[in-house]
Amino acid sequence: MAKNIQSVERAAAVLRVVGAAGRPVELAEIAQALDLPRTTTHGIVRTLREVGLLTQPNHSTAYALGRRLATLGRARLDPNDIRSLTTNYADALASHSRQAVFIGVPHVRGVAIIHHVFRPDDREQTMVIGAVVPFHATALGKATLAFAPSAAGGGLSLERFTGRTVRTRGRLDVELSRVRAQGFALDVGEHDPDLAGIAAPLRTVGGLGVGAVGIVGTVGTMVGTDSQPRPDLVGHVRDAATAMSRAIVAGR
Amino acid sequence: MRPLSHEPVVAAIDQGTTSTRCMLFDPQGQTVALAQVEHRQIHPAPGWVEHDAAEVWRNVTLVVPMALRQGGVEVGDIVALGIANQRETSVVWDPVSGKVLAPAITWQDTRTADIVTTLVQAGHDEQIEAISGLVPRTYFAGPRLRWQLDHVTGLRDRAQAGELLFGTMESWLIWNLTGGPDGGVHVTDVTNASRTMLMDIETRQWSPRLLELLDVPASVLPRIASNAERYGTCTTLLPGVPVTAAIGDQQAALVGQTCFEVGQAKCTYGSGAFLLSNTGPTRIVSSRGLISTVAYQLGDDAPSYALEGSIAVAGSLVQWLRDSLGLIDTAPQIETLAATVPENGGCYIVPAFSGLYAPHWRDDARGIIVGLTSYITKGHLARAVLEATAWQTVEVVEALRGDTGMDLDRFVVDGGMTSNQLLMQYIADVLDQRVERPLVSESVCLGAAYLAGLTVGYWDSLAAVRDNWHRAGSWRPRMDPARRAIERAGWEEAVRRALADCS
């Protein structure tokens, strides 16, 4: 049988000591309880603190179990955390692209809109936070689905919204491969004949997709005469998605 | 956020209650970079809240380079620096060593209750109000300086010997940025000074009478300047960059929201919540517990004034739920928890952690939770936490309407809590008015940047920056009036109890 890794065993023992105390525990106490040298113990607790499994409450010298330990079993990101962590980037994206911005996360029937920034032209617009848009007919949906394949759960309804809606699983799979290769998704008149969307995935640790950010505007403002999406807009969306993903990873 | 471009930008530092941030803005008022570091909240006794001003300065030295890196900006690209700050927090330091001489006493701290009560009992309150425009309260900075002089060993001797400087956070930061012990500029601005209870609101200079009443030597005080002028040049951190704006955070948000016309107002939701309404060149004296304050003054121009409805506890109640009760892991999760129930279950929280501010102004009020039954879950508590902020908003909006006789034609909000959809919807519901959020939620930084940029000609007029304002979100009221009336009665009953329990 392979030998166990000693430092992992010791780290687990430290967590058990702190957990059993039910109160913040000083370094000296931990070292004593495990009969380890102070310097060794300090290396372990410092590492555990850095990865968020231990914390020093109220900036004291004593250690307690970190918040991340409690949330280990709950890997799903809270949509309200995502909105809060990304809101400044969403504003910047609306400001640079001059289009409406949406952030979505997977939902049973499609992508649930968890954040909406109005197109910054001061025209009348309505918040659609809480609405659900289809996976197969929107850029936001395709960007979500491409990087989180289990997002759609059991099945996908490939409902027809316009003449351009993707209606076969085969064509959708081709489209999703392209999204994965390009790093962004596109919808030109597939959900609403007059509107186009560009979206990029939000990804957390290990590249796992947790949702997507996208912009939506009229086909004329989003797509060039060559029927390709305007490269500057694609760039803004991808930059925003990268910055948001970084903020989500850092904020967890 | 973007590669090195060498386009000129304006920098702003927002030294806030829980964190210090640095932002960079382009000519359209768009965010180029945002960096932020939190500092410790020190609670040595009930009602006491301190900050370590040395830690705050260290954090400034961290966030500024972080923002530059993030924005791909070099020091030479920055045309000006503006500073906005948590107001009324009192810092004392040694001009020779540059060392802080006592913990900074923050605006939420109520330890000066005895000093304030003594002034009132001696019958000085009317004179203080006549000169400073402020009814004596623990909220203001002057009594904190007096407390420090009285209680920190050796401080009064130092003051006498010229070995002590006092300032609110902007003074402390500007002094350090412009050289510290080596020629640092000791200056404050008219908005921060107007919250010390030491300034004559008409002359906008320190009042000899108020200094005498509070027994504070003039020698420790900074010079009072306008909000937009060249105070000095950074010798460190951003060497060569002129410091050209300083303004209290709430007034900064008013500017950031471009509320330059009489009657325009904004409400900022941070640790506390603050409604400010521009009253133009006229100073309106409130009969409903609002504070008459300087809104901003640009160089030698005449100042604009504002009426302010101050709510001491808003976001800090959410932090309390997170840090002291452990009901949520992060502040935004309050919304998730609140959404687990459709209504508050009859539970109301009155968060009088620092007494109750506007419009009640009771330093001695303490927080209460009413309506507890076995039916109440943590979801109901979460709702009550958010609703407390909404109802306090209603109270200050109604006080403002009473004082000015004007309805707000728009209710414009900013600050971190505006990302909370449930709260924003509830505010629209109970105000029965549309709530609007601007494209840049960080109005405090933006306001400081606007003033700094206006001073050096980066923007040429208030009208030019006004064109940068865009609506990024809005919430329309949809609550049934009968429901609103029932909820209002529940809240008012809770407030009555919070006030009754303490007298």
Please describe the structure with a list of short key phrases separated by commas or semicolons.
heterodimer; A: 252 residues; alpha+beta; Arc Repressor Mutant, subunit A; Beta-Lactamase; 2 domains; 6-stranded antiparallel sheet; two-stranded antiparallel ribbon; 9 helices; elongated; B: 503 residues; 7-stranded mixed sheet; 6-stranded mixed sheet; 16 helices; 23 strands
Q: Could you describe the 3D structure shown?
A:
The complex is a heterodimer of chains A (252) and B (503). Chain A folds into two domains: 6-71, Winged helix-like DNA-binding domain superfamily/Winged helix DNA-binding domain (Arc Repressor Mutant, subunit A, Orthogonal Bundle); 79-251, Beta-Lactamase (2-Layer Sandwich), CATH 3.30.450. Helix content of chain A is 43%, strand content 18%. Chain A has helices spanning 6-21, 27-34, 38-50, 67-71, 79-97, 139-147, 169-182, 219-222, 231-251; strands spanning 54-55, 64-65, 100-107, 110-117, 132-133, 185-188, 195-203, 209-218. Chain A has a six-stranded antiparallel sheet with strand order 5-4-3-8-7-6, with helices on both faces. In chain B, strands 17-18-16-15-21-22-23 form a seven-stranded mixed sheet. In chain B, strands 3-2-1-5-14-13 form a six-stranded mixed sheet, sandwiched between helices. Chain B is globular. The model of chain B has no long low-confidence stretch (mean pLDDT 92). The chains are: A alpha+beta (252), B alpha+beta (503). At the A-B interface, helix 4, helix 5 and strand 4 of A face helix 11 and strand 23 of B.
